[in-house]
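> call design_seq(struct)
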């Protein structure tokens, strides 16, 4: 979402490279360009001015030490300003009470129902026992959608199809959760407009009745400045505890993510970056600022990888590389593991330098699908011993996968390159990947 802003900020900061020191004169154009970039990204003008004024004030008074260039120092000042703009530090979701209750509110189409499933999946991994509650009594498909998500996640869903009173449903759900010893209730509510007083009164009364430990306002990040004004209107009515930004994998300019904290004075607690249940992250302002500036977010990358790869899998992979046994079957497994980490664009943006270096590549979720189809069309022997794949076998694999021989050749060539690269990394340090998560955690 922030590709355009990232490029423009990088371009603006580059103008300081080669300067001996920071002065009011040589940063004037840079400050102006940063402000323009923020406004173009749909950041509110007052917020953009506030941020750039703060950067300018700190930059002029900053001392440039010998080992750091003015450009590097200025990048750090911009990163700090963006971090402060988005809240400074991560704010935890409060889960008080037994059961704890999370109430979701927002406009229709913001993604509340999908988010309810994602939150259930997230807290399942935290050893919580969630119950999804369908309190959207106006959209017939809402309860069905929630039940489908519950089946996928093996999470209980409470519905009362004949009841049109969300308070009754919610109160009965609490009793159900207590009876079944569930410690978390996630309440999906109907989408409503801030100008619809009847609907707003309903959500206010629902909040008063449930007394949730956390009320989250769910907003579509692609809504731009409208998202900010909607958040302000909902906050006046509900006094919610935090914001969840959905559809952050979209192509919008992303200014809402930068403006909403400053304008509403409520923390962003989660961001949703795709349609899969695992595409939900805690919001860390400092990490997001790094990603916007093209510096990546290695800590979040490692945290996701740790959820997918355990130590036994790491050791097994390292042993296969060490003993020259890594094959196409292993490659297919690695592809499936990478896909479990979430949206590919989001993953790439976490790696320093890669987000801006590959802006035009088709980084869609089905990018690896062709590779999987080809590998699945091979015999077990071919997958385990790629060198035996001669021309006749390639022609057969091409027919079976619906691909061309050239595409088979390309995959085998890519496998060879990946294998050589992994061998090289292993020689540099066989326990590199195992040590990385702990090293990064120590540096937090």
């Amino acid at each position: 979402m922030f590709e355009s802003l990232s490029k423009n900020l990088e371009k603006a900061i580059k103008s300081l490279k080669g300067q001996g020191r920071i002065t009011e004169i040589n940063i004037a154009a840079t400050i102006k360009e940063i402000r323009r970039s923020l406004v173009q990204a749909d950041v509110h003008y007052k917020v953009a001015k506030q941020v750039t004024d703060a950067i300018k004030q700190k930059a002029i008074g900053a001392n440039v030490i010998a080992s750091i260039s003015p450009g590097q120092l200025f990048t750090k000042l911009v990163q700090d300003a963006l971090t402060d703009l988005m809240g400074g530090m991560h704010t935890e979701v409060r889960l008080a009470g037994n059961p704890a209750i999370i109430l979701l509110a927002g406009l229709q189409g913001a993604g509340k129902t999908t988010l309810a499933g994602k939150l259930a999946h997230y807290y399942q991994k935290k050893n919580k026992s969630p119950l999804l509650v369908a309190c959207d009594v106006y959209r017939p498909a809402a309860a069905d959608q929630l039940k489908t998500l519950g089946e996928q996640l093996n999470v209980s869903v409470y519905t009362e199809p004949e009841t049109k009173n969300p308070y009754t449903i919610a109160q009965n759900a609490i009793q159900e959760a207590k009876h079944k010893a569930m410690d978390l209730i996630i309440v999906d509510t109907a989408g409503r407009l801030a100008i619809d007083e009847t609907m707003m009164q309903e959500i206010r009364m629902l909040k008063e009745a449930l007394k949730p430990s956390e009320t989250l306002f769910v907003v579509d990040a692609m809504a731009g400045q409208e998202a900010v004004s909607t958040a302000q209107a909902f906050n006046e009515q509900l006094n919610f505890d935090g914001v969840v930004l959905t559809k952050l994998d979209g192509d919008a300019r992303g200014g809402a993510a930068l403006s909403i904290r400053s304008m509403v004075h409520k923390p962003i607690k989660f961001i949703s970056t795709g349609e899969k249940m695992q595409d939900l992250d805690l919001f860390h302002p400092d990490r997001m600022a790094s990603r916007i500036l093209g510096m990546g977010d290695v800590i979040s990358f490692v945290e996701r990888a740790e959820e997918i790869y355990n130590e036994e899998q790491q050791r097994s992979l390292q042993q296969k590389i060490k003993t020259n046994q890594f094959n196409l079957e292993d490659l297919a497994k690695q592809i499936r593991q990478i896909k479990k980490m979430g949206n590919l664009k989001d993953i790439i943006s976490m790696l320093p330098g890669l987000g801006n270096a590959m802006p035009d590549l088709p980084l869609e979720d089905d990018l690896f699908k062709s590779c999987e189809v080809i590998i699945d069309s091979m015999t077990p022997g071919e997958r385990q011993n790629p060198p035996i794949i001669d021309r006749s076998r390639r022609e057969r694999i091409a027919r079976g996968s619906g691909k061309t021989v050239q595409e088979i050749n390309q995959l085998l060539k890519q496998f060879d390159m990946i294998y050589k690269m992994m061998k090289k990394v292993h020689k540099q340090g066989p326990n590199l990947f195992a040590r990385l998560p702990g090293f990064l955690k120590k540096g937090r």
